[in-house]
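Now for my pick.
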Amino acid sequence: MSSSLPAAAPPVAPAPSRRPLGQFLLVAAALYLLWLLGYERALGPAGHLDEALSRNLAAAGSGLLRLLGFATVPDPAQPRLLLMDGQPGVWVGDPCNGLVLYALFAGFVLALPGGGWRRKAAFIPAGVGALYLLNVLRVAALALNHHYYRQSVDFNHHYTFSFVVYGAILLLWGWWVRHLPRPTAPVAGPPVSPAA
């Protein structure tokens, strides 16, 4: 009498987990709520952070242009205003100082599962620094645009530079996602052959 064992079923790949997506959405929603409460209720109305950042961008944009040989200074009476050859060039307003973009960038990195806190603590300041430098370039370029070809400033301010800045954020996010450690799949053992 021979006994035959049923053939072992081939290993089934585990179903993709929805847990990381749920975790991302939950953390992203919590960070958004924290931003709404923190910025809209405290930081925004007080205006100190926006004012300091806008003044800093005007001064940094002016400094960059001076380094390139242009006659530019922040207006002493209105430090958010960058003057070129004594004429108004660019006024850095709160929506254009990049604060919301820095928060958006950092929130995505924080909400995305994986990567570890140490890596996030290094990547977020580096990414925010890169976005800040891009914003300084943007302010300087808009001042030049206003000085030499005023007709296109509105288009470039609303479309060209928005495309560039949001594109840079997407590239940084993409870099972060590509460099996250990949979870390893469990290794299946050798197939079990039926006894003869």
User: Anything to note?
Assistant: The helical segments are 19-46, 48-67, 99-111, 117-148, 153-178. The chain has a mean pLDDT of 85.
